[in-house]
Design a protein that fits this description.
single chain; alpha/beta; 7-stranded mixed β-sheet; 11 helices
Length: 413
């Protein structure tokens, strides 16, 4: 099919900054669509119909599809395929029906101004996202390029860095990159005092840990227990690392953390990759408060918290790629309900510390297959004038992967 939709990335320098083919596509389009700011970057063209992108923003997709089969040119910011409108439209329009002309993205321009190697920089759009999403990226020596949500974002980022022990980090705010109004503001997070500027800006962060701080938390499983706000109901560090290894988070997958306690498993699952998702199901309100605080402090504000008791609370939830049962394995029907809901190829991991819980896991192993592992961990503690081993309560770990095909149906019984 001949492409009817053309998406043109445009920068602050307007039509003059586009390549020859992109300029021709804009000038020859019978209908031009874009935000008022983008349309304002292109001089009026005789005979061309101009259509502002509607509000709410999502209505624009239906508007675009309403022109299907007739030529339409849509203006977007910078590189439309980098967290941009082109990538969103590609979810609605087949590749054969659209052409895309990218311009330099704002992060490319920012890296050029700063002299930073773009492949060595972590990027994060903060449009519509809490600044807490930044937490997992923070470590000494990291270089970050953040897309501001609005004019207040730089001050919010500076405050977060300072509170987390990165007040010494160098900040640069680059506004209106590539245009006549381009401006750069510099400072440190702890001493950031610039007033709010432009809504359109890139925030560059050269992370530097304050003296005496730990330099950031690892992205690998097994954060220290003290990194979490909890009341003692937490899968301890060593058991947590092994549990997450069994759960094996992969990009884009969804975890059910059933009986989540303080949410440590769900939090670390989501920290494994920015696209990992998790639902924490917890019946106690005080523990749900712990989960809410932990998801903000550890940078996974997208962790969904469900109030309720499983298995009833599981009804209607999106099927998971993995399930963790940190407790409640003796509840009638809970393991079976999770197993039935689990996607083929998904992993179910359940822990128990009581004899009754261990017996339930042995029975589950007999029904579903999988494996049982017993963890015995001891920590050194004072013993008179010396030090000795203090054993923790042993943990029994049951892990099983759901077959892709189960012709007998017995595994879900």
């Amino acid at each position: 099919m001949t492409p009817w939709l053309t998406v043109v990335g445009i920068g602050e320098d307007g039509l003059a900054g586009l390549g020859k083919a992109a300029r021709r596509a804009v000038r020859e389009a019978p209908r031009l669509m874009g935000s008022p700011r983008h349309l304002g970057l292109v001089p009026d063209i005789p005979g061309q119909v101009r259509e502002p992108w509607p509000t709410p923003f999502a209505e624009g997709y239906d508007r675009v599809l309403g022109h299907r089969g007739t030529p339409l040119c849509v203006l977007a910011s910078g590189d439309p395929m980098w967290h941009g409108l082109g990538a969103a439209l590609a979810r609605h329009v087949p590749p054969a029906e659209m052409r895309v002309f990218p311009a330099p993205s704002c992060v490319s321009l920012a890296a050029a101004r700063l002299g930073w190697a773009l492949h060595a920089v972590a990027t994060l759009p903060l449009h519509g996202r809490p600044v807490a999403t930044l937490h997992p990226l923070l470590h000494a020596g990291a270089r970050l390029l953040l897309l501001a949500d609005n004019r207040d974002t730089p001050a919010q980022v500076a405050a977060l860095l300072t509170a987390r022990g990165f007040g010494a980090s160098a900040l640069s705010v680059l506004e209106h990159l590539g245009g006549p109004r381009e401006r750069r503001l510099d400072g440190t997070a702890a001493a950031w005092a610039h007033p709010p500027g432009a809504d359109l800006a890139v925030i560059a962060v050269a992370c530097a840990a304050d003296p005496g701080t730990d330099g950031g938390l690892s992205r690998l499983a097994g954060l220290p227990d003290e990194a979490f706000d909890h009341d003692g109901q937490i899968t301890k560090r060593d058991a947590r690392a092994i549990t997450l290894a069994r759960l094996a988070p992969r990009p884009g997958e969804l975890l059910w953390d059933v009986g989540a306690g303080c949410g440590s498993i769900g939090v670390e699952w989501m920290r494994a990759d920015a696209t990992c998702r998790a639902i924490a199901i917890e019946v106690r309100a005080d523990r749900r408060d712990h989960i809410a605080r932990n998801r903000e402090a550890l940078g996974v504000p997208g962790l969904v918290i469900i109030a309720g008791e499983a298995p009833a609370a599981l009804d209607g939830l999106e099927p998971p790629d993995a399930v963790f049962l940190g407790g409640g394995v003796t509840v009638h029907g809970l393991v079976e309900a999770c197993w039935v809901a689990l996607k083929p190829g998904g992993r179910l991991v359940a822990n128990a510390v009581t004899l009754e819980g261990e017996a339930a896991l042995v029975a589950a192993r007999a029904r579903l297959g999988g494996s049982l592992t017993r963890l015995s961990v001891a920590q050194d503690r004072p013993l008179g004038g010396f030090r000795g081993w203090h054993p923790a309560v042993p943990v029994t770990v049951f892990s099983v992967t759901k077959p892709h095909a189960d012709p007998t149906g017995e595994a879900a019984a």
